[in-house]
Design goal:
Number of domains: 1
Helix content: 55-70%
Number of strands: 2
Radius of gyration: 15 Å
Order of helices and strands: EEHHH
Structural class: mainly alpha
Number of helices: 3
Shape: globular
């Protein structure tokens, strides 16, 4: 499945930065090259400082940040 799977995600909800439009994709090399080429033609990259901010968040936030966020989302879902 790994050769046929493409995962696409974003950080807008995770870090409450909905206007930044910063995301990622994970795929086998042949798909990643095609995704990169299409991205270069169709989308404008987020400014470097915003990308750096997300990188710091990924590297420095403790696991409890994500665990608490999951609990909060579950509570909101259950309430709904």
């Amino acid at each position: 499945m790994a050769d046929r799977t493409i995962t696409v995600g974003g950080y807008s909800k995770t870090f409450s930065i909905t206007g930044w439009r910063i995301g990622y994709s994970v795929a086998a090399a042949r798909w990643a090259q095609a995704i990169g080429a299409m991205n270069d033609l169709l989308y404008v990259c987020a400014p470097t400082p915003l990308q750096a901010g997300v990188a710091v968040g990924i590297q420095e936030l403790p696991p409890s940040f994500y665990q608490d966020m999951a609990k909060d989302f579950q509570a909101k879902r259950d309430r709904f």
